[in-house]
Amino acid sequence: MNFTDFFAASYVGARERFRRSAQAAGAATLEAFTHPEERGPSGEALTVDIAHLGDRKGSRQLLVISGTHGQEGYAGSAAQVAWLKSGDAARIPADTGVLLVHGINPYGFARGTRTTENNVDLNRNFVDHRKPHPVNPRYDELREHLVPAHWSQDQLAAGDAGEKAFVERHGADALFDTLARGQYVDPLGPFYGGVQREWSNLTLEKIVREQLGSAEKVGLIDWHTGIGERGQPFFLCFNEEGSAEQAEAARWWGADKVIGSRPNGLARPHYQGLVFYGVQSFLEGRQLAGAVIEFGTRGSATGRALRLDQWLRRHGAGLDDDVRQQMAADVLDALNPVAEDWRDAVWQHGLALTQAAVRGVASW
């Protein structure tokens, strides 16, 4: 087998492959949640699809999510399909279920952008919007350097110089924290968490409450790409340091991978509004263990592509179509490389890590 058995070339293709694979795996409960307002680029429906396998009322459940960030959905989908095609769905241990959530941000997946229909980073949206939003204390200091008016060498160089000066004042860890923790003041800036719950946020709550109501303990994998060594998994566990849940995740995947990880060699940002925290709140006190698992692409250079994604959201409509397509292709390749070796590494690691999580949750 190779990557073409698991990866798709479009959102529509990924969705169809996921649903066919779930049906072929047998005894899967399939359901689709259709966006009530948005459509895909060819007018197609945008849906979040779920497949629930094994004991759907079991006390142990594994929740596996793909597509939180649109372009990253291809890798997460491939990992889900690889597990479905492995035959393991027929061998899930007793009292254990596996809930696969495919394309939780279908707008971004279909439209080739990181964010939702409202340009919101879904992985910063799971905060209590009824309260004052989290503050990113140094964001205004960086704001003018992040998304230039023109995507030109001169303006990009000026932005790089602004970031360099910021690092000289505050350090590289502070730069990464300011960029990645999330912000709630600049709707056209990167990592914008929004001012209200996105449709995908509400849909995920509905799925968790309806599908995992019987669960006492839940494992979580939220598939992403970008951070880490090329083609290799990188773990961001958001369980409390030293907690029993963190120890569980470490037991499944290895303490050396889960504990003390430093993304791109830097201190972990003070992330706000993560999907992980949203699922935690939806479970209302029941135990949750797991991680965001990234597959490395361009390392720290991926940040340039994330800004280009934001620039295209602002200015792409006015571009020559050929130019826009080339720039969008660069963003997509930064988060979903076309290379065979990268894609084969993703599905193989994705399968092994899912298998380990199923075993871990069942024996928790």
Please explain how this structure is put together.
Helix content is 42%, strand content 17%. It has 364 residues and is of the alpha/beta class. A seven-stranded mixed β-sheet has the order 1-2-4-3-5-7-6, with helices on both faces. Helix 1 runs parallel beside helix 2. The radius of gyration is 20 Å and the shape is globular. It starts with 10 loop residues before the first helix and ends with a helix.
Q: Secondary-structure blueprint of this entry?
A:
Elements: H1 11-25, E1 29-39, E2 45-54, E3 60-65, H2 73-85, E4 96-102, H3 106-111, H4 139-142, H5 153-170, H6 172-180, H7 199-211, E5 217-230, E6 233-236, H8 244-253, H9 255-258, H10 275-282, E7 287-296, H11 302-315, H12 321-335, H13 340-362
Parallel strand pairs: 3-4, 3-5, 5-7
Antiparallel strand pairs: 1-2, 2-4, 6-7
Helix pairs in contact: 1-2, 2-13, 5-6, 7-10, 8-13, 11-12
Could you tell me how far the N terminus lies from the C terminus, measured between alpha carbons in angstroms?
32 Å
Give Rg in angstroms.
Answer: 20 Å
List the total number of helices. Answer: 13
Counted beta strands: 7
Question: What fraction of residues sit in β-strands?
Answer: 15-25%
Shape: globular
The major sheet is characterized as: 7 strands, mixed
Which H/E pattern describes the elements? Answer: HEEEHEHHHHHEEHHHEHHH
Helical amount: 40-55%
Unreliable segments (pLDDT under 50, ≥5 consecutive)?
Answer: none
| Mean pLDDT figure | 96
Structural class label: alpha/beta
Strands of the biggest beta sheet: in what spatial order?
1-2-4-3-5-7-6
